[in-house]
Amino acid sequence: MEKRLFSSLLLVVLFLVGESHCKKQAGKLGHFYNVKLKENSGIDTSLFAGIHHVKRASKVHPQEGLKEKDRIDRLPGQPQVKFSQYGGYVTVDKSAGRALYYYFAEAQKSKESFPLLLWLNGGPGCSSLAYGAMQELGPFRVHSDGKTLYNNLYSWNNAANVLFLESPAGVGFSYSNTTSDYNESGDRKTAEDSYVFLVNWLERFPEYKDRDFYIAGESYAGHYVPQLAHTILSHNKKTNMTIINLKGIMVSIFSSCSSSSISFSHTSHRQSINSIKLETWSTLWHIRLCLLDTLFFSLFASFQRVE
Ligand SMILES: *[C@@H]1O[C@H](CO)[C@@H](O)[C@H](O)[C@H]1NC(C)=O
Ligand SMILES: *[C@@H]1O[C@H](CO)[C@@H](O)[C@H](O)[C@H]1NC(C)=O
Ligand SMILES: *[C@@H]1O[C@H](CO)[C@@H](O)[C@H](O)[C@H]1NC(C)=O
Questions:
Q1: Ligand 1 within 6 A of 99 CB?
Q2: Which of 1-5, 58-62, 69-73, 185-189 has the weakest average pLDDT?
Q3: C-alpha Rg value of the chain to the nearest Å
Q4: What string of DSSP letters covers 134-193?
Q5: 302 against 168, higher pLDDT
Q6: How far apart are CA 56 and CA 48, in angstroms?
Q7: pTM, entire model
């Protein structure tokens, strides 16, 4: 009994400390960010050079009627659900024939008031549909028969309208008709394409244009997420308009609280470790990351917009 009380108290204290600490962190991050952008900071800012100038007007294409075309009535083997889902392509470069694939699961309830959250898996080269949506935070999981789906109780669309993007071209269903595009990919191009994707997607789903917007991702998306955020903010600033209403970002090593099986898939290359050790390691890792995720979440909750 005492132990339980102590644990509860400890959790509350940790949470409160985490909260105030996170506010400080957001301040520090803002400060760091401002220093970094000063010309004489001595920090190499060239990495950002290419993503300030996406010419929005030339990149936004008409999207009428495409939203309804993208509607998914039902995925194969899917249980009945009440929320809407969509999937389809958004062209990000007409002349090259480059298009990115998205899967969008609207919130289970109150989709009008919940924010829009973009999810990006890392890699580089991991599919946000195969990993993020189907094994981590999406509304469904795949049964071991490989043919049917079941509801994921902990799906993030309990609290947000979740947009999964396959990025860059060459990952998952995203592609380019210009083969050399695959040779010339890189973080800068990824940010630019994702930005063009977003402004066009928002034309297709205009009801989300002013919605609070968050970007979250894991692993290598620790590069994608802040670079895309930077691209969004610099375009908002340049045009003096809130083109995308970015409110916060979240990055994590990988989404761990969703399932321990994902830990397995991430460790499967460690064939030399025997399965019992692997299981123990995976469980411990899982618990540790769950705690970390909790901290990330409080950071997420108190993240102030970086100007
Ligand atoms: C790529 O080429 C195919 C076949 O010609 C075409 O159907 C498709 O629309 C092209 N994709 C883009 C994004 O232009
Ligand atoms: C891609 O790059 C490789 C190595 O640099 C080169 O051999 C190949 O021809 C390139 N392919 C295209 C389509 O540009
Ligand atoms: C930006 O917009 C605000 C509000 O609409 C306005 O007060 C301000 O003067 C604008 N700044 C520039 C540089 O256009």
A1: yes
A2: 1-5
A3: 20
A4: IIISSSEEE-TTSS-EEE-TT-GGGTSEEEEE--STTSTT-EESSTHHHHS--HHHHHHH
A5: 168
A6: 17
A7: 0.72
CB of 184 sitting under 6 A from ligand 2: no
Residue 168 CA neighbour count, 13 Å, CB half: 22
Question: Helix and strand tally (H, E) in the chain?
Answer: 8, 10
Q: Which residue's C-alpha comes closest to atom 2 of ligand 2?
A: 183
User: Is 178 close to ligand 1, i.e. is its CB under 6 Å away?
Assistant: no
**Token code pair at residue 108:** 């289970």
Contact, 136 vs 120, CB < 8 A?
Answer: no
| pLDDT tens per residue, range 82-112 | 999 999 999 999 999 999 999 999 999 999 9
Cβ of residue 179 lying under 6 Å from some atom of ligand 2:
yes
Query: Per-residue confidence at 184, pLDDT binned at 50, 70, 90?
Result: confident
Which atom of ligand 1 lies nearest, measured to the CA of 177? 1
Q: How confident is the model at residue 14 (pLDDT cuts 50, 70, 90)?
A: low
Ligand closest to 174 (CA) is 1
